[in-house]
């Protein structure tokens, strides 16, 4: 079994989901008392958010790259950044290490392609919805044209619920209803699926909250790590 390196804490609420999902999947696949071989570095999220708000992505990249190097030195055979937004810096982290960084967009796109999803609704932070790094990778590598909520107010609500509630462990029925409404409007826009493109969104809503197929990036990313850890060769990440 290969060792999985997790760059976590952004937020720790979703990193806990990663840890549980990875271990559940290893136990399911191997049985008995098996669990995953995991190294984790969990950051103080407030410091990362301060860099995001300041637009200091250079410093943020340095922080994540240093963590990645540390995990590699400690024995990690692959790395995961346990957040969608910080994949804005994925290339910087990959350049800093020699082990593969398993990209969350690639893990999410694989089942989308398999199900022939062409126009998913992307729900995420403003950074992920409004900047190009995420949607461009879906488009350029996989031919998937993700859409986002049409209005700035809708995108702001999705973002604010993530940072103001879910990252703080707060789950509100009123916010669930708002997300349900956004997903319904996404279907009216022509969406053929929903991507939970923030690792906390699954704490609030799930497949029962929409009649569109849901692709939860947290579970898909964690499962990709298990695939890598249990693979008999490095072919999966070639």
UniProtKB/TrEMBL annotation:
<dbReference type="Pfam" id="PF01177">
    <property type="entry name" value="Asp_Glu_race"/>
</dbReference>
<dbReference type="InterPro" id="IPR033134">
    <property type="entry name" value="Asp/Glu_racemase_AS_2"/>
</dbReference>
<dbReference type="InterPro" id="IPR015942">
    <property type="entry name" value="Asp/Glu/hydantoin_racemase"/>
</dbReference>
<comment type="similarity">
    <text>Belongs to the aspartate/glutamate racemases family.</text>
</comment>
<protein>
    <submittedName>
        <fullName>Aspartate/glutamate racemase family protein</fullName>
    </submittedName>
</protein>
<dbReference type="InterPro" id="IPR001920">
    <property type="entry name" value="Asp/Glu_race"/>
</dbReference>
<dbReference type="InterPro" id="IPR004380">
    <property type="entry name" value="Asp_race"/>
</dbReference>
<keyword id="KW-0413">Isomerase</keyword>
